[in-house]
Amino acid sequence: MSKKEKKVRVKKEPTFIVAVLPIVAMILLLGLGYGFFHIGPEVLMLTSAAIAALIAYFLGYSWDEIQDNIVDKIAKTMPAILILIVVGFLIGTWMIGGTIPMMIYFGLKLISPKFIIVTAFVVTSFVSLCTGTSWGSTGTIGVAIMGVAASMGAPLPIVAGAVVSGAYFGDKISPLSGSTNLAPIAAGAELYEHIRHLLWTTIPGVLICLVVYTTVGLNLPDMAGGNSDKIQMVEKSIHSLFNMNFWILIPIVIVLVGSALQKPTIPVMLLSSTLAILNAVFIQHFDIKSAAEAAVTGFTTDMLPQGVKISADLTTLLERGGMISMLSVVLIALCAYGFAGALDVSHSLTVVLNAMTKAIRSTGQLIATAIFSTMLVTGVTSNGQLAELLPGEMFRDIFVKYGLEPKNLSRTVEDAGTMIEPIIPWTAAGVYMASTLGVDTMAYLPWAILCYTGTIFALIYAFTGIGVAKITKKSRFWAEYQERNGKTVETPSDPVA
């Protein structure tokens, strides 16, 4: 053999201890680094990826093989990542075009002192659905509602729970939400399929919220009419800053119709954004440069006419959107898939999953295991985004092997990751909600009904088979199912051992 010829490296199969080592390292790094020292998760994920890559190298894999596998993982997620960026584009244009401000304005009109608790849930749900942000909805409309509730003498933990439930309603199912886009990326599902499948666990929770919040509100002692100056101030400010008419709602109609007709996501969103830019120029009278800047960097109050003064609360509500606002989510996704690619090249993930699933004998046990794993990652890392990405990647192939559509997995990580995060006191979301609303996490937890009913219904569906989508011959995953269960499989059924 010539000296110039590369020496062929012998590849070794990892033992369970070796295979689980990078996963344990990742959990420890994120649990300590992010949870206690507040180090950015991107750095910790890259460190975890480096550990996984080092282990793969000592198992006989070259750097080129490791790099190719990482690139392959990222390449498969690029269409969904593009959707994330377009969502930022959409929010920025909807904001400067007046679409989101108009929806917030009419949402605020629904507030009634007599039904403050259920109204807190409905209005916050409405705003979060339009904006796709739980934190923004809580920090603006939520804070205003808490001020009204305090002036009425309403029970603040209950109102705070209703606000958190409403805020995460939109975070869960809005196509503008980062988590709603991340979950199908991780699981290999399609965005609008994922949203429709979420309705199985979301609608029952919403109905329970409406019944409980209404019943509790009607049975509370009479409360004096509160001072709603904050709400009225926001209403008047929005009405004075933006012109409102039917055309402003057309961008929303385009997205809804496109979703109903199952049209490609990116072209629909770009069409909607284009009309929103036209609204910004011809109806709201912003210049084209400001509209373009809102699409890229987000809408800011500096774009408003000089001399216009608005409150800090309204500034927080309006300043959002833009493609750049999604880059942090995209960066976390890239780092997480860098770790997944480095872990997967040595088949470490397969070894760990095989060990985890040896005792699994049913669909119910599989989904329950995925739920528990997602909740564990959420609690350890304090990061709902990582709790979607990592379990999604780990269970992605197993769900297909068991004949389950990927949207079952995307729904699972959304229910057990995104929704659970704000009711865990030490997570970033739990700390933010408690500090913003002025109510301890454990105090509002029982009343944040929507945050935990999704997991309860997910477990019920898992063991009854209700609302669980199976792979069929018409499914685009049928070929992959056959590949995993044997080419001779002719009908979708339980997985072949």
UniProtKB/TrEMBL annotation:
It is a multi-pass membrane protein. It is found in: Cell membrane. It comes from the Bacteria. InterPro entries: Na/H_antiport_NhaC, Na/H_Antiport_NhaC-like_C, NhaC_Na-H+_Antiporter. Residues 166-466 form the Na+/H+ antiporter NhaC-like C-terminal domain. The chain crosses the membrane at residues 16-37, 43-60, 81-105, 111-131, 143-169, 198-220, 241-261, 323-345, 366-386, 444-469. Keywords: Antiport, Cell membrane, Membrane, Transmembrane, Transmembrane helix, Transport. It holds the Pfam family Na_H_antiporter. Belongs to the NhaC Na(+)/H(+) (TC 2.A.35) antiporter family. PANTHER family: MALATE-2H(+)/NA(+)-LACTATE ANTIPORTER (PTHR33451), MALATE-2H(+)_NA(+)-LACTATE ANTIPORTER (PTHR33451:SF3). This is Na+/H+ antiporter NhaC. The gene is nhaC.
